[in-house]
Amino acid sequence: MSLTFYWYPKCGTCRNAKKWLDAHHLSYEEVHIVENPPSRTELQGLLQKSGLELKKFFNTSGLKYRELGLKDKMKSASEDELLNILASDGMLIKRPILTDGEHVTVGFKEEEYEKMWL
User: Fold this and answer.
1) Widest CA span of the chain, in angstroms?
2) Ramachandran class of 99: left when φ > 0, alpha when ψ lies in -120 to 50, beta otherwise
3) Which pLDDT tens digit goes with each residue over 12-58?
4) pLDDT for residue 1 is more than 80
5) Of 55, 70, 96, 105, which one is least surrounded by beta carbons within 10 A?
């Protein structure tokens, strides 16, 4: 199983997820989500495979999210518009994202990682 780990090194949640992956001896390719954010097409694929709502992919506690007033835009914007916004800045994407190409987790919850990745 080849894992791709989209993360932001300064993010505590990402560091916790990385520690968990390392502790469970899972190998993964690290992708700095701000320097190399997933493209719109990649995000769309991750969204479809995750089974989650698009809003779960937004870093709603981030400064950028608040600056752009996205809470209000979420209600009226189309999925297409929201994907374009999300792809425009890696800081808008909730992290970490872990995928094996078939399954996707967004954020880090130990129980969820255990169910999905062990």
Assistant:
1) 43
2) beta
3) 999 999 999 999 999 999 999 999 999 999 999 999 999 999 999 99
4) no
5) 55
Range 75-84 average pLDDT: 95
Please give the Cα distance from 108 to 90 (Å, whole number). Answer: 17
Residues 76 and 80: their CA atoms lie apart, in Å, by 12
- Nearest Cα to Cα of residue 95 among 12, 19, 3, 1: 12
If phi > 0 it is left, if psi is from -120 to 50 it is alpha, else beta; for residue 51 that is left
Cis bond leading into 96, ω under 30°? yes
Name the phi and psi angles at 37, rounded to 5. Answer: -65, 150
